[in-house]
Design goal:
Layout: H1 6-16, H2 22-36, H3 49-59, H4 65-73, H5 76-79, H6 84-91, H7 93-109, H8 114-130, H9 132-147, H10 155-175, H11 179-193, H12 195-212, H13 215-229, E1 235-240, H14 243-253, E2 264-270, H15 273-286, E3 295-296, E4 309-314, E5 320-327, H16 328-336, H17 361-372, H18 376-388, E6 391-395, E7 401-405, H19 410-417, H20 419-423, E8 425-430, E9 433-435, E10 447-451, H21 468-500, H22 507-511, H23 522-531, H24 536-543, H25 568-574, E11 580-581, E12 589-591, E13 603-608, E14 612-617, E15 633-635, E16 637-638, E17 646-655, H26 660-670, E18 674-683, E19 687-696, H27 699-710, E20 715-720
Parallel strand pairs: 2-5, 12-14
Antiparallel strand pairs: 1-2, 3-4, 4-5, 6-7, 8-9, 8-10, 11-16, 13-14, 13-15, 17-19, 17-20, 18-19
The protein binds manganese (II) ion.
Length: 723
């Protein structure tokens, strides 16, 4: 590959930024070349070809002089003897800061496991929030590394880089409007991750191309003629879609390979917004539309600022094509992304541009999540999800636009409006009708959130929200709430344990032993006891070493009440370990779905050949059918409560009013019940009838929840389900 020469690079930068510091670019070029010396890339090329490619790539996006110099120097701190101090001395503080930002990212990129990848993303967000140019250089670096990925010998390493590109860098490129970069990164990563799929799509494309001759050329000609006849001035271009975007469509639409025909995209660039809609009219009146393919990103732009009209038609020769229509101004933004707004003036004065990343709302939201996530994995989970999804656009009653990832619910909407609105939301009206908070919102929905000061974030919301912001707020709330409970419980346990030895428990008493237990504060230590990770006995024995020789007392460490919800699969495996007396060893055990027996219920087992034992409550109506076969009955009873979660089911009738469902779930959550399913079985003008499945410890726990629900206004009746 021919390397770009020094003067070419300078010429390119000066072509769009006449005030660029030519001398500094030259010095950076020479400095990087000298520093990288005889280092080689995996391809065998001199290492120095890489920073030049990266810098050259960025000139296509008309990036400022500082970004170009940063690109030239981006690997010098990492891979050569050069230091940040050298760079600052030679190129100034701004460049040194930018290079440092990119370097930090490179260092962590070498890690492979999940936690490290998350940490990587965290640092990336922090670095780019300070200056978006760090991200631009990083993306260009990634593009070149992906283009040369096949030179890397180790398959695992190639795969890791490709995955990271697909999951992190491509979505980030899209976020800042770098559409071309996003598509190239995705397609290169796709080639590494699914080579067979990509090859077969390419083979199909080749086949269609051979059959069709210069199909794109013929379609272009006809489109040009059509617009000319309508008196519209336009520049039109056409291309095949990338194999990756075709593959995505095949997955989403469940289209078979043979039906694959929607492979060409055409772009019409016109002078004004009016011309965009006129062009659309001309195309729609000449060619039949493909249903559901029209999108108006002019009236509702994408969050990254992208504007265009998209439509699908059966175009010339009845071929399915996609047409994107935009003005030249929109085209510039679509091509250059964030850099489209940077203006350069002749004469070398500071160009007018905003490089502070915090101007981007999504980046501010990422930062907010970052500050409050308890660990990097949680952060990754929040953000990755969000970046992948398409958007839906909804409106507040005042007509303000809120864009959300698809699948978003009124709770996501509420949090997007304001954290406070999210925390206190009890219900939602979607297009004027009261809808459950878990409803999936659709494009164009008008959403009105009903709030109540008494409401707090509901742990069950976490199951259906899709935005990182909502999830992070809910988790934060649960954490503080759980923590408070652990502290209360821990304090009670310690009080008793200390008293048993004849002492009063005070915060001061444990002050001296915090370090030993690696507790950050007294509350922290108490919470550890409440949580059960530390026993009261250990604390007592450490505070009063002279007691160590005494015998243990049972009951000093009480089982904590708060449990983490367990995955269903895990629980099923444990079913056989459930402590029930009277079982035949080795036999499979199921809990009946009709009566949902709980520890504390009187129970009976029914033996079924090949299925094992099914456990029913003694008053279950279904037992009638076994009345004639007493030999199948097993007399069973519960052992002590086992600490596992069990499924209880309740029937409710509640008033059909805003907020009642919210108060039902809140009451259940406050009583430490974990809702696993909620079904509306009947719905009238006045009432809802619901079935709710709740994970509880035992029958007493469920009875408590039922009692609490009965004490709630707007709930007409609550019964344990019996059928
Ligand atoms: Mn690099």
């Amino acid at each position: 590959m021919a390397m770009m020469r020094q003067f070419e690079l300078v010429e390119r930068v000066k072509s769009y930024d006449p005030g660029a510091d030519e001398d500094a670019i030259n010095r950076a070029y020479v400095f990087a070349m000298k520093m990288h010396g005889s280092q080689k890339r995996a391809s065998g090329d001199p290492y120095f070809s890489h920073p030049i490619e990266v810098a050259g790539f960025l000139t296509k996006y008309r990036l400022d002089c500082a970004s170009i110099i940063t690109a030239l120097l981006h690997d010098t701190i990492e891979d050569t003897p050069a230091t940040q101090a050298d760079i600052e001395r030679l190129f100034g503080a701004e460049i040194a800061r930018l290079v440092d930002g990119v370097t930090k990212l490179n260092r962590i990129e070498l890690q492979s496991d999940h936690a490290k990848q998350a940490e990587n993303l965290r640092k990336l967000v922090l670095a780019m929030s300070e200056d978006i140019r760090v991200l631009l250089v990083k993306l260009a670096d990634r593009v070149h590394n992906m283009r040369t990925l096949h030179y890397i010998a180790k398959p695992e390493k190639r795969r890791r880089i490709a995955l990271e590109t697909m999951e992190i860098y491509a979505p980030l490129a899209e976020r800042i409007g770098m559409q071309e970069i996003k598509m190239e990164l995705e397609d290169l990563a796709f080639g590494e991750l699914h080579p067979e799929a990509r090859n077969s799509i390419i083979a199909r494309l080749n086949f269609l191309r051979e059959q069709g001759g210069d199909l794109i050329g013929r379609i272009l000609d006809e489109l040009r003629r059509t617009l000319e006849e309508a008196g519209i001035q336009a520049s039109i271009s056409g291309r095949e879609k990338t194999p990756f975007s075709i593959w995505l469509k095949m997955q989403k639409k469940n289209v078979g390979f043979e039906q694959l025909s929607d492979i060409m995209a055409f772009r019409v660039v016109v002078g004004s917004i009016e011309d965009c809609y006129r062009t659309l009219g001309v195309i729609h009146s000449k060619y039949p539309m493909v249903p559901d393919r029209f999108k108006d990103y002019i009236s509702t732009p994408k969050p990254n600022g992208y504007r265009s009209l998209h439509t699908g038609v059966f175009g010339p020769e009845r071929h399915r094509i996609e047409v994107q229509i935009r003005s030249s101004e929109m085209h510039e933004v679509a091509e250059l992304g964030v850099a489209a707004h940077w203006k350069y003036k002749a004469g070398g004065s500071q160009p007018a541009r905003v490089t502070d990343g915090r101007q981007y709302r999504w980046l501010r939201e990422l930062l907010d999540i970052l500050e409050h996530a308890s660990n990097p994995e949680e952060f990754l989970e929040h953000t990755k999800l969000e970046m992948f999804q398409d958007q839906v656009f909804c409106f507040t009653p005042k007509g303000d636009l809120i864009s959300l990832p698809s699948g978003a619910t009124p709770v996501d909407f509420a949090y997007a409006v304001h954290s406070q609105v999210g925390d206190t939301c009890v219900g939602a009206k979607v297009n004027g009708r009261i809808m459950p908070l878990r409803t999936r919102l659709n494009n164009g929905d008008q959403v009105e959130i009903v709030t109540s000061k008494a409401q707090t974030p509901n742990p069950t919301w976490e199951r259906f929200v899709v935005t990182g912001k909502a999830r992070a707020r809910i988790r934060r709330f649960i954490r503080t709430q759980q923590r408070a409970q652990y502290v209360d419980l821990g304090r009670a346990i310690l009080l008793r344990a200390f008293r048993a030895e004849g002492y009063d428990f005070t915060d001061k008493a444990v002050d001296g032993v915090l370090k030993i237990f690696k507790a950050a504060s007294v509350d922290d230590l108490i919470a550890m006891v409440g949580e059960g990770t530390l026993t009261a006995r250990e604390v007592v024995a450490t505070v009063f070493p002279e007691l160590k020789t005494r015998t243990q007392r049972p009951g000093d460490n009480v089982v904590p009440i708060a449990r983490k919800p367990k995955a269903t699969a895990e629980r099923k495996d444990k079913a056989s370990a459930v402590p029930i007396k009277g079982l035949i060893p080795g036999m499979a055990v199921h809990f009946a779905g009709c009566c949902h027996p709980l520890p504390g219920d009187r129970i009976v087992g029914i033996v079924t050949t090949g299925k094992g034992v099914t456990i029913h409550t003694i008053d279950c109506e279904n037992l009638e059918q076994y009345a004639e076969t007493p030999e199948r009955w097993l007399d069973l009873s519960w052992d002590e409560a086992d600490g596992n979660a069990h499924l209880g089911r309740i029937d409710l009738v509640v008033a059909n009013e805003p907020g009642t469902l919210g108060s039902v779930t809140t009451v259940i959550a406050k009583n430490m019940g974990n809702i696993t399913n909620l079904k509306i079985t009947n719905r009238t003008v006045e009432f809802f009838e619901l079935i709710i499945d709740i994970e509880v410890r035992d029958v007493k726990h469920l009875t408590n929840i039922i009692a609490a629900l009965r004490a709630t206004p707007a709930i007409n009746s609550v019964e344990r389900a019996r059928n």
